[in-house]
């Protein structure tokens, strides 16, 4: 079956996720700059999560650009990814409101970890369907960056109980690692 509906549905879900996250930002209680101070952790959590959702949306778009068709297994793997992404508004709000308490910081990292695992599963279901010599297989290769990201998320989740600020630094570092454009698919697929 064609891939158009999967892409459209995924784009819609991701747009809703971002909308929910921004709706969690509340208007300050006062009318001076000091009123913004309590919102700083919530806003920074939003910025980091917005980056992550944007990174997943961008990579999802590129990945589906490299495939021609989908199967039922691809649909379920895609829903699995969207499930973990859909938890981002909740984990974002919790970590921002908690001012880096251990459990919210750890669960934020575990959500990032599960998003990475779900993306890995989706990629491998697509590769299995299209074959080891397909464009998607060649473009993703060994996916070192994806594997190291999952490790960073787990290490960050563990640090949440020792030094939560280290966790956030690791999560931020990983996001910036993904902001560097990954041109593997663009090089292989010319429009």
TrEMBL record:
Q: Which reaction does it catalyse?
A: K(+)(in) = K(+)(out)
Q: According to Swiss-Prot or TrEMBL, what is its membrane topology?
A: Multi-pass membrane protein
Transmembrane feature ranges = 9-27, 39-58, 70-87, 107-127, 148-180
What Gene Ontology cellular component terms go with this record?
A: membrane
Keyword presence, ATP-binding: no
In terms of superkingdom, the source organism counts as: Bacteria
Specify one Pfam family: TMEM175
Q: GO molecular function of the protein, one example?
A: proton channel activity
Supply the alphabetized keyword list: Ion channel, Ion transport, Membrane, Potassium, Potassium channel, Potassium transport, Transmembrane, Transmembrane helix, Transport
Where, per UniProt, does this protein localize? Membrane
Q: Which family does it belong to?
A: Belongs to the TMEM175 family.
Name of the molecule in the record: Integral membrane protein
Q: What is the lineage of its organism?
A: Bacteria, Pseudomonadati, Pseudomonadota, Betaproteobacteria, Burkholderiales
